[in-house]
Amino acid sequence: MLLDKPIYVTEKGIIELEAELAQLQTKKRLEIIERLQNARGGGDWMDNTEHMLVEEELAFVDGRIRELQYMLDHAQLIEPGNQDNIVDIGETVLIQTNGGELEEYTIVGMAEADPSEGLISNESPLGRALLNRKAGDEVVVTAPMGDIRYHILAIRR
């Protein structure tokens, strides 16, 4: 995580992060610790592959807990309202590709980004290109296969 950068999150996103954190702290971590204790009881732990795998899983979960706590501690709530009709974080943008395809994306912070669900990060190439633009604007995103042009059709909260 980069320090000094706010983590933009919707109200729904905060609820989801808090739920994941609670699940990891109150259930998943305890299950792993129990499995770790059982693996230790299985003989020479230095040669116990299961023990090492469970320790790695615990380290991963502990890392995710720290990451979630950091995100929640540095979360900046995305406030509703688009009085200026300029694309901002938290808004949904209807765009059209050069090929005529319509695509709709909601711009969110990295913590909530899920392109398969239409949620793109404000730090992604398309997200950055759309920010501070308005309906009617054309944006260009540079991709490995070349520049891709999008026409902004509508912005909504």
What's the topology here?
Elements: E1 7-9, H1 11-40, H2 49-73, E2 75-77, E3 92-97, E4 102-108, E5 119-121, H3 125-130, E6 138-143, E7 146-156
Helix pairs in contact: 1-2
Name the features.
about 160 residues, Helix Hairpins, Chitinase A, domain 3, 2 domains, five-stranded mixed β-sheet, two-stranded parallel sheet, elongated
What does this structure look like?
With 157 residues, the protein is of the alpha/beta class. 39% of the residues lie in helices and 25% in strands. The chain is built from 3 helices and 7 strands, in the order βααββββαββ. It has helices spanning 11-40, 49-73, 125-130; strands at 7-9, 75-77, 92-97, 102-108, 119-121, 138-143, 146-156. The protein has a 5-stranded mixed beta sheet with strand order 5-4-3-7-6. Strands 1-2 form a two-stranded parallel ribbon. Strand 6 (138-143) and strand 7 (146-156) form a beta hairpin. Helix 1 packs antiparallel against helix 2 (49-73). The two termini are 27 Å apart.
